Amino acid sequence: MKITSAEVFVGGPGKNYVTLKIMTDQGIYGLGDATLNNRETLPAKYLQDYLIPCLIGKDPRNSEDIWNFFYRGAYFRRGPIAMTAIGAIDMALWDIKGKIAGLPVHQLFGGKSREGAMVYAHTTGGDIEQLLDSIAHHQEQGYQAVRVQCGIPGMPKDGYGVAGDGEDANHFITQYGELPKEEIWDTDKYLRFMPTVFEKIRERFGNDLKVLHDVHHRLLPREAAAFAKELEQYNLYWLEDPTPAEDQSALKLIRQHSTIPIAIGEVFNSLWDCKQMIQDELIDFIRISATYAGGITHTKRIVDLAHIHNVRTGFHGAPSHSPISMAAQGHLNAWAPNFGIQEYLVLGTPECDALFPSDHHYKNGMFHISDAPGLGVDFDENQAQRYSYERRYHPVVRLQDGTMWNY
Ligand code: CS2
Ligand code: MG
User: Fold this and answer.
1) Are residues 148 and 269 in the same domain?
2) Which of 312, 331, 346, 403 is the most buried (most CB within 10 A)?
3) Side-chain half-sphere CA neighbours of 365 within 13 A
4) 262 and 354 together in one domain
5) Ligand 1 centroid to 103 CA: how many Å?
6) Structural domain includes residue 218
7) Which residues touch 365 (CB under 8 Å, ≥6 apart)?
8) What is the pLDDT of residues 341-391, one digit of tens each?
9) Structure pTM?
10) How many Å lie between the centroid of ligand 1 and the Cα of residue 318?
11) Does residue 401 lie within any of the structural domains?
12) Residue 68 sits in which domain range?
């Protein structure tokens, strides 16, 4: 069996999805996702200029060898652009493998360990009342777990993860600007206010609701340790990215002061980035994604390392991942013995469903993977003609005196 050609498409409804399609001499094709949020053309170009020419003629069944050919063979290893591009190839090769076997991809890892995978949604509010309404709305949709982000009094209402005035908090997703929007951050105000939010959530919704919160890398280690200690009483499911992830030894301070579960990893793209924090058991959930961390082959390797260190999965699932990598993660979630939770926003528009038809579905707080062979997602090239690339940027963050901070 041989790879005969491969093509990259960039575009989608409101998103610059980067979709790779690998064709074989036996008519079977595989699909992969290389959507590196807000830098989408770069993995696309890397695929077109460097990786696809080497793929032609290779046996698509040898996904491990092909992964290593591109990883080891690049000399300059790792980084989000290369790992996202390699990951798309890897997903497409697992898709082909499953189609050859006539089996859904999770069967190739060891089958299902659970029927549905618990997911969490994003809830948000410019103020506490709006946030509580948004949580109630999501509970009505069946969610057992929600991420909560709230506007901070005295700070502009459009900070990270927060619906601004006039935005629909129940269907809010971060909008990325044509140029980087500048947000303002005030750590003291945030640290004083957030505990009152969790208090009100527990008062209104009780203890069963799983509550998650994303600090989005904003705190210094000492601040994060004090915050984590204070929040322990509210029994959070996790506290995400309390500090910037580059400095993993900083996490020791948080661990020494609190038993709050910590979730980190969405900005990592390889096992080597998260090895220390997994081996030293400094985190409880690993947040890598199949999109940015080299596809299924490499993500599974990280999941296996995490398993022996009592770290559960909590894959990144922001709406920027296309349904192809959400399916790749769905298959890993169905299998992983150390599955924790999956970030998943039911915002699927009819346009997105038409572009990526599949039978995977959300029901009552759970993601259910279909038994279709391969990844179980298709790609409609006619629909794809409707879309093209539009440049977008993440916001940037400054302190009130103008100092640059971490988005
Ligand atoms: C986030 C993301 O989903 C999350 O937990 O931290 O919203 C993140 O800001 C984006 O994926 C950045 O590309
Ligand atoms: Mg996050």
Assistant:
1) yes
2) 331
3) 13
4) yes
5) 32
6) yes
7) 118, 119, 142, 143, 144, 145
8) 999 987 678 999 999 999 999 999 999 999 999 999 999 999 999 999 999
9) 0.97
10) 6
11) no
12) 3-104
